[in-house]
Every structure is written in structure tokens, then in C-alpha cells.
Amino acid sequence: MSKQNSGAPARLAIVGGGSQFVPSIFNGLVAAMGQAPRPFAAEVALFDVRQAAAERMARYGALVARMADLPLTTIACGTRAEALTAADLVLLCVSLPEERRRGEALAQTVGINPHEDDLGGIALALSIAPFCLALGIEMQRLCPQALFLDLVNPTDILATIVQGHSGVRSVGLCVEVEGLRGLLAYHLGLAPDELELDHVGINHDGWVLRMRVGDRDAYPLWQRVQPGLEDDPAYHPQGMGGLAVYRLTGYLRSSTYHNLPYRFADPPGMWERVAQGWPEVRALHDHAVDEALATDTPIVDPWPAHPARSPLSYPGTGRQIGRLLRAVGTGLPYVSALQVQNRGAIAGWPDDVTVEVPVLVEGCDVRPLAMGLAPEWLCAATRLAAVQRRLVAEYALRREPALLRQALATIPWAAEERALETYARELHRRYGEWLAAEV
Q: DSSP states of 424-435 as a string?
């Protein structure tokens, strides 16, 4: 039975309820409620260790609901348990700075760059895993039927860990595919909803196999537009690597900003162009929220505008989460870019790896759509990375050192053998300490 049928509002709990994503989520939720073919009520419960930040976001949510005249309630909760109780959808979007620092420090001890080398993501995942394990057990007790959305990187590994430990349905949610949809739509002169993407891959490492506008192939549209983008001040300079990969392969990455295992030098003056021509996202967001609360006027996302210039942080992600709550709470179907177990979605890939593909969400049902075969020459490295991430998640759940060594040996050229062996030994030791500290 959906919440709509029971008469109760669809409830979204946000752990990290003071984050910069929240205004975009409120705007997206109001839009989803207003566009629903049948009305539904919603409730957003915000929890943040910075209570004042959650209260500020709750005020913005109340403002948006009042101006739209929709049955949306916002609550700033004093405890995480209060936010989670009876939730239908749980979003994790916390920063966890201490956990990130310790993961980065461990990677650096064996000469691995935590920001550039994909191996650094393994230490990051294991440093955050104890927090996620505890959250999953709390959800098992307070909202066992909820769908858990992880927005904290590495999203695919952490979502797999939460589901494997607690049994709570868990999916990874990354901003990149919806960000790409917004970027492409802007440069093609379309509305984001006009553009449909068939994409395959994992978190931050995937490929757009097909894109369409209605029944029409949209890749020829992109082919006509992209030659002039390097000199276009409206094209974000950090996307130049994505252009280079497209010109090499003929395919778009599912993120224009993440290009591993391809390696490109930053174009000369790139960071200067970013600083001079593009807003600092957090400052833009903070100013927009302050102005909205001072003038009693919701933030408006201008169109057409590049997503990186929006006063809402990640506007595509806000629309996505609003529609996901509508789908979970009412049973109205919605296809969303999410990270779930493969189960045949990418033909020829193991069923038990976590992949990022279009996923149909319909009430309690979460089902990846079949994308067919991924070109082996294009996606073989991505498939290998998916296997490595599955092994990391299995290690996090079972703590068997052999699994961690297997994960590091999956991509043996990533570092020297001695560094990999040291990394495995230190990770195993420190992971035990991190687990004990969380308990």
C-alpha cells in the first residue's frame, strides 16, 4: 500500500539536513507535487548536527510550501531517530570531514593520491563505512521499508554496504548524470526533460550509449554543437576533459568532470578561467537562501541558464529527489539515474556488481532497465572497476583480508605491488579500529 492510499504523507528524511542540496530538493519536490496527476501530501524531516543549519533550511521549505499552496510540511528534528521514524525515503548528504581526512591520510601513507587515483576511493569508502553501517541498523529499526539514497561518495560502494548489512533497500545517487543532462540540454537549446539518456557504468565512471529527443537520435545534434565549445565562454572549463574523451571515443562520459582512467593535463589557465568566469557555488547558494528568507520569496532557477550558474545547488538533483519521493510515496513511476545491483541491466556484466543505469522506481519496486551490451572496447575498464568495488563492499561486510587484497589486485597497474600490499595491510588494521570506534 502506498502512503497515498493510507492517507499519510510521503515522508523524506534528510540526514545532513543543513546541506546546500536542501533548497534545490524543496524546489524540486514542490514542482513534483504540482505536476502530479493526482495530489499527494509530503513531509520533509531534516536532521543535522548543526541544528541551526537544519532550522534555516526548514524555514526555506516552509516558505516554498506556503507560496506554492501545497500540503508540504517541514520539520527540523533534534535527533536522527526522530527524522528517520516512519520515513519512506532517506537521503544521506553529510560531509563527514573527519572520516574523509583519515581516509585521505591513510592513502597518502603509501604514496596514493586520494584525490586523483581511484585507489584512494577505497580508503575513503572504508573510512565512512562504519557511519553508514550504524545508520543502516537504525533505519532497520525505525523505517525498514524505506528506500535509502546515498549521496556521499563513493556512493555505489556505500549503498551496497548499507543494504548488505541491514537489508534496507539502498541505492547510490550521484549528481553527475542529471548534471550532464542539464549541461547538454543547455548547449543544445532544450529543456532537460526533453533529453533521454541511456547510460551504463558506475559512480563517476560511465558512458552515454544513446541519447534521444523524442524518437530522434540526439548524438548528431551534439556532434554539430561541440566543435565550438572550447572557445565558448558558456562552456565550463572543467568540462574540457569530457570533450577530449568524446573526440577520442565518439561517446560522452556520464560525467564531464570525471575522466579516470583517461588522463588529461588541465588546459593552460583553466583554473583562472573558472575563478574569473564562474560563480563559487556555495557562496552563490548561501546568498540566494539568505535573500529568499529576507524577502519571503522562493529561489527561482532561471531558464535557460547553465546548471553551474544556478542559485540552486545541483538543480537537476533537486528535481530528481522530488520525483523520487513522489514515486516512492504514491506509486507513480519515475525513471531515474541510480546505482543498483546489475541484475542483467548491462548484458555480460556480473549480476551482483553495482551499476549506474536508468532505474524504474514505482512505490516499493526499484528495477534497473535493460541497456543491452556495452561496447567491450569502450567499457571494459569500467566493468573491471565495478568488480573491484563489489570486492571492497564484500570486504567491508565480512572483514576477510583476502577480499581486500583481491580488490587491490583487480587493477594491478594502479600502483606498485609493494604499495598495494602495504595498502591492504594498513587498510585492514585501520578499518578494524574505525569499526570499533563507531560501535
A: HHHHHHHHHHHH
* Residue that is written with C-alpha cell 563489489 in the block: 390
**Where are the chain's structural domains?**
3-175
For residue 9, whether the previous peptide bond is cis, meaning omega lies within 30 degrees of 0, is no
∠ at Cα 122 (117, 123), nearest 5°?
Answer: 95
Dihedral of the alpha carbons of 345, 349, 351, 354, in degrees to the nearest 10: -80
Question: Which overall architecture, per CATH, does domain 3-175 show?
Answer: Alpha-Beta Complex (3.90)
For residue 42, report the phi and psi dihedrals to the nearest 5 degrees.
-140, 155
- And the C-alpha cell for 35? 505536476
Q: What angle do CA 18, 21, 26 make, to 5 degrees?
A: 90
Cell numbers at 238, concatenated: 572543467
pLDDT band at 1 (very low <50, low <70, confident <90, very high): very low
Given a cut of 60, is residue 191 above it in pLDDT? yes
Mean pLDDT of the chain: 93
112-150 pLDDT, tens digit each = 877 766 788 899 999 999 999 999 999 999 999 999 999
3-class secondary structure, 347: strand
Per-residue pLDDT at 39: 82
Q: CB under 8 Å, gap of 24 or more: what pairs does 421-427 form?
A: 422/110, 423/107, 423/110, 423/112, 423/119, 423/123, 426/106, 426/109, 426/110, 427/106, 427/122, 427/123, 427/126
